[in-house]
Amino acid sequence: MASALEDPVLIRPFRGHRAAVTGVAFNADAAGLATSSLDGFLMLWPLKARSRAYRFVGHAAAVTDVQFSLDGQLIASASQDRTVRLWIPCIHGESSVLKGHTASVRSVSFSHDGHFLVSASNDKSIKIWSVRHQHLLFSLFQHTHWVLCAKFSPDGRLIASCSEDKSVKIWDARNKICIDSFLDYGGFANFVDFNPSGTCIAAAGSNHTVKLWDIRMNKLLQHYEVHRAGVNCLSFHPSGNYLITASADGTLKILDLLEGRLIYTLHGHKGPVLSVAFSKGGEKFASGGADPQVLLWKTNFDSIDYKEVLKYNTRRTQIDDPPHLLDIYPRSPHLHDGKLKSVEVNPTFDVTNTQTLDPLVIEINSSSSFGNMDRVSSEDLQHGPASVLATSSKRKSKDERESAVHYGDKQAGISPSLGNALENIVDQLDILTLTISILEQRLTLTEDKLKECLENQQKMLLQGRYEE
Predict the structure, then answer these.
(1) How far, in Å, CA of 44 to CA of 219, rounded?
(2) Residue 389's closest CA among 85, 27, 86, 32?
(3) How many CB atoms sit inside 10 A of residue 72's CB?
(4) What order of strands is seen across the sheet that includes strand 294-298?
């Protein structure tokens, strides 16, 4: 069993969202964190002590996902208002709206070079956008139900997607065709992503499972059943050796992919965990839940210096590099259940009642579209997003100061009893939202089973007629 010094450690919680946290993403140097929520807001959290947090207002409905570009200069967000937004992570709140979907947008992801963006939607489509010109390039149609997630491969050649039609598809982004499909009759995948080498994909299942496929051999490599409820999200460690999963059972699980076993079970959220992500270097990870809290963790369990590994993977993501043929994970499929021994990590203090002070939240309304990427100010390009956020108090205008003071006074004017009552109402609404989501999933499964029964009955009737 690992020593306490090697175990993951909760650094601190962040509270500021008013409903479930649907997405978490680190910027390039892991000095800042972006989060999305059902409350309709995007938030930026500088991880430096005593820094202010920023709440970005722009979407007209719940925000379902958030992603930083690799260089940290842009943030993409997806929303139930049927739009994708591109944001410059600074206090000016500049954003551009991408319209094209006809239903809720479920996920958004940048290509490795930052030139393209892929989005998945309840309209059963996957759309690829030009980031620089901010327009739709093309759409992919083959899924027969809501598309829940879509991700670019590290080299940008492929796209992986998952849908409530119970399929995980691999697309050729250049030729705009589906080149492979993995079917899972036990349930549908809520989330899918490539490993850092681009040779495998992992899917988080609604049927409590995590599956890894080798996309070169079209073969199931690993199958984990370590959660007691649906798996909502997952994230590969930059080394590719570890995978972290977030589940509706309220836990995070860390899997050692080389040894094929569960090594950690992390507690801390009070309710379903909806999102999780490693930082670019892997030294930290963050999780978001229905509580609605954001928990920041220190990895600790992997002491190897991965600078060389990251450089190697970066070299391999160039567009003209040949496919990587090294088998990283076991080639034969094998099942892993929850009986495997793992280290339980449970914070010694009550996360919701910790004395860690929450940062002051400044609300920023979206300004007009930033149009062409060349219009990004030289100051924003010179400083990383975290630096911009950390020094934003020096750059604020008089109007922004007055807005912040007014916001603080407004908060102070609410009595504690009324504030608690409002928080309880928000919590209850959040629980209702999650309950409806679960009921929708169960209804979908029931419809599928009913359809199968009707088809079987029809076959039996036809067989009976033939026999007569």
Answers:
(1) 39
(2) 32
(3) 24
(4) 9-14, 294-298, 284-289, 273-278
Q: Which residues contact 251 (CB under 8 A, 6 or more apart)?
A: 227, 265, 266, 267, 269, 273
pLDDT at 240 over 50: yes
Is residue 284 within 8 Å of 278, Cβ to Cβ? yes
Distance of alpha carbon 438 from alpha carbon 229, whole angstroms: 11
Instruction: Please compute, for residue 418, the number of CA atoms within 13 A of its CA located in the half-sphere on the CB side.
Output: 5
Residue 461: HSE in the Cβ half-sphere, 13 Å Cα cutoff: 6
The reported pLDDT for the residue numbered 356 is 58
Distance (Å) of CA 408 to CA 57, 174, 247, 328, 336 = 17, 50, 35, 52, 51
Task: Give the pLDDT score at 319.
Answer: 39
Measured distance CA(209)–CA(207) in Å, rounded: 6
Q: Cα–Cα distance between 148 and 218 in angstroms, integer? A: 22
User: How far apart, in whole angstroms, are the C-alpha atoms of residue 52 and residue 48?
Assistant: 9
Inform me whether the pLDDT recorded for 294 exceeds 80. yes
A 10 A CB-CB count for 435 gives: 10
Long-range CB contacts (within 8 A, 24+) of 370-377:
370/86, 370/88, 370/94, 370/95, 370/96, 371/96, 371/134, 372/132, 373/131, 373/132, 376/73, 376/88
- C-alpha distances in angstroms, 369 versus 32, 76, 77, 87, 373? 23, 13, 14, 9, 10
The Cβ-side half-sphere exposure at 286, using a 13 Å CA radius, reads 26
What's the pTM?
0.73
Geometric angle at alpha carbon 83, from 194 and 13, rounded to 5°: 60
Q: Classify residue 398 by burial, with Cβ atoms within 10 Å: 0-12, 13-18, 19+.
A: exposed
- In the sheet that 135-141 helps form, which strands lie side by side, from edge to edge? 105-110, 116-121, 125-130, 135-141
Integer Cα distance of 324 and 211 in angstroms: 21
| Radius of gyration (C-alpha) of the chain in whole angstroms | 22
Lowest mean pLDDT among 67-76, 183-192, 374-383, 438-447: 374-383
Pairwise CA distance, residues 99 & 256, whole Å: 40
Measured CA to CA, the distance from residue 198 to residue 209 in angstroms comes to 21
Cα distance between residue 162 and residue 314, in whole Å: 26
Residue position matching structure tokens 């003071």: 405
Residue 286 · residue 17 · CB < 8 Å = no
What is the residue-wise DSSP string for 418-436?
HHHHHHHHHHHHHHHHHHH
Q: Identify which of 42, 27, 186, 49 has the alpha carbon closest to the alpha carbon of residue 110.
A: 27
Q: Report which of 120, 21, 122 is spatially closest to residue 62, judged by C-alpha positions.
A: 21
Residue 334's pLDDT band, with cuts at 50, 70 and 90, is very low
- Using alpha carbons only, give the angle 211, 216, 218 rounded to the nearest 5 degrees: 50
